[in-house]
Amino acid sequence: MRVVVAPDKFKGSLTGAEAAAAIAAGVREIFADAEIVTLPVADGGEGTVAAAVAAGFEEHTTTVAGPTGVDHQAVFALRGATAVVELAAASGLDALPAGPDPMGATSRGTGDAIRAALDAGARTIVLGVGGSASTDGGAGMLVGLGARLLDASGTVLPDGGAALARLACVDLSGLDPRIVTTSFTLAADVDNPLLGDRGAAAVFGPQKGADEAQVVELDAALAQFVEVLDRVAGTDCAGLAGQPGAGAAGGVGFAALALLGARRRSGFQVVAELVGLHAAIAGADAVVTGEGSLDEQTLGGKAPAGVAAAAIAAGIPAHAVCGRSLLDDDARAAAGFASVLALTDLEPDPEVCMREAAVLAREAGRTIAQHLAENVGATIGTSTRTKELTS
């Protein structure tokens, strides 16, 4: 019996590694002699570095500027000359010291983290974006890498997207020269452009605390950034601003495309390659994945849907453990889950679910394994669906 346990994080309660360990412990209660492979996954956002570390990358800690400019510790992962830098760790919402700062928050810490990875010997960098606190078009990231943003009087602009409205000059002479010889991958699932009704400010600004008037102000400031950068960057910044993914992470996607020469790829697919997901799944009898909430966003490219698709392609049943499930039976079947078991099926009180997530995830793993054992002759190692799990 070989089971691969590959969940994403349960936000607010369990990391991907903790969820994998708990589910695996439950499976082992039923299949004591099973080969259980734990392989935490992510989709390019929070948890991407942790997934890489669990797969054998070395964790490095560095000091970076937080979203409000206050220094804090962030981690990146390194294996050989390949580094994984996670924007959420350096410049994410969870790194805010207080409440949201939609107009002043910066991505500068992400540039600091990239520079630290370069110092550590990285020449291939995966930039996982998601959970950004800022809407600065990646201007702060460029500052962290040595650029200077100046107003008409030659004064350096303060951090944040709002300040870009006064941008008159971008000085790229101090930009880290190692960027030219480094390969960058933008791990991003969102396909939004930088500007307009589907842009970074309009779609994601409200999630970072921006009101209607601030969204309009930020979008205009980002347009000013594109116009000024277009004059000095040597690339078609105006065209790149309209590319899918340019609006990712408050516009960090745009700066990565325009100045780092990044290539955008699906965040989950990048992580799947980094951790060796497809090789791990090959020959398994069952796969268990999951995350905090299974919902419509899950179906739009989140990690559990990706794991399920990989399992289906290999002819292996995929099961999901989650904190809660908002998917109806049709959506669950379309996603390819043979069964879904939510922690709220085991404990209806959400607060208890959050507090006792590890215990409940273990129970969920045991329950799934029990159903697998009951159907072992008919389903294990085939594409036949297992018996549905109910609360």
Automatic annotation (TrEMBL):
Gene3D superfamilies, alphabetized: Glycerate kinase, domain 1 (3.40.50.10350), Glycerate kinase, domain 2 (3.90.1510.10)
Q: Which organism is it from?
A: Zhihengliuella halotolerans
Protein family (similarity comment): Belongs to the glycerate kinase type-1 family.
Transmembrane regions listed in the UniProt entry: none
**Would you say which domain of life the source belongs to?**
Bacteria
**Does the keyword Kinase belong to this entry?**
yes
Known PANTHER family for this protein?
Answer: GLYCERATE KINASE (PTHR21599)
Name this polypeptide is given: Glycerate kinase
Keywords from UniProt, A to Z, are:
Kinase, Transferase
Picking any one GO molecular function of the record gives: glycerate kinase activity
Q: Which NCBIfam families match?
A: glycerate kinase
Q: Name one Pfam family in it.
A: Gly_kinase
Q: Name one GO biological process term.
A: organic acid phosphorylation
